[in-house]
Amino acid sequence: MTSTEAGIISSVDPEILTAVGARAAEIIRGEPVSSKLVAMLALGSIPIALGALARDVYGQAPADVLDVLQFALLLEYLESDFYTQGLAATGLILATDRTVFETIRTHENAHVTALQALITGRSATPRTKPAFDYTAKGNLPGFAFAATQYATFTMLAQAFEDTGVRAYKGQVGRLINDKGVLTAALAIHSVEARHAYEVRRLRGKKGWITLDSRDDLSAFMQPVYAGEQNLVQGAVNFAGFDANFGGDSGASEAFDEPLTMAQVTAIVTLFLA
User: Fold this and answer.
1) Whole-number mean pLDDT of the chain?
2) Cα separation, 233 vs 241, whole angstroms
3) What's the pTM value of the predicted model, to 2 decimals?
4) Highest mean pLDDT: which of 21-25, 46-50, 73-77?
């Protein structure tokens, strides 16, 4: 082993080396291996062998993980497209709020790019971006990002961001065996939470959800808030929480509840053209 090769190995995450070592041991025992990997290993280069084995270990993701990634990508397509259209519309967004929505749009675009890379990095093809209907199948008749529709625009932004926070939380358990995707999902989740707070602040609302209140959002958006009135966290029942600290309302505000994929899909479907 050369000093260069030793330096490369020392710089690799120990968890990756462990996984690669386990895969190498499987191959030595006679486990199936692709002809492409055999050819790479035959070159005799330690860095090439490490790269080839790492790709073999991490190149294929369980269907469950890919399902979550494709699901998350749909949400990010929706948000990215929504803010892009809003910022392109003449006179819609207040000048004082424009920087906020430009920043959020930048974040959502980055999320799309990151999710696409995670999907392609696991030997799959990212879903294509669909067309969206921001009238929500006629529930918001006439909404077209017009200059007089800023209140509706911010209402939708709140609903999308609140959905995103709960949607990511609902899928974390399915990612527990893929550290890379789990880390990315948690990073995106935290940013979505900041978005939700900021949009709520612009609308003059609390930065968090109280019980299952949708605030002043249209009735068809109630599914975004379904289940948020839950007062049991782990083994602790917060019902009857000390009134000096907000009572049941305060207890519900302290935790976000997850939404299932089916619940989120039903919400998003309303906005698919």
Assistant:
1) 86
2) 13
3) 0.77
4) 73-77
Q: Which residue, 65, 40, 50, 64, is CA-closest to 14?
A: 50
The SS3 of residue 272 is: strand
pLDDT tens readout for residues 221-250: 999 999 999 999 988 899 988 888 889 999
Distances (CA, A) of 104 to 81, 83, 194, 267: 11, 8, 9, 21
What average pLDDT does range 165-188 have in this prediction? 92
**Residue 64: in which H helix or E strand, if any?**
helix 63-88
Return the CATH number of the domain spanning residue range 63-269: 1.20.1260.10
19 close to 57: Cβ distance less than 8 angstroms = yes
What is the predicted pLDDT for the residue at 243? 87
Can you list the alpha helix ranges (DSSP code H) found in 144-205?
150-171, 179-202
Count of C-beta atoms within a 10 Å radius of residue 270: 17
Please, which residues have CB within 8 angstroms of residue 108's CB and are 6 or more apart in sequence?
Answer: 76, 79, 80, 83
Q: How many CA atoms lie within 13 A of 55 on its CB side?
A: 16
Task: Enumerate the domain spans of the chain.
Answer: 3-58, 63-269
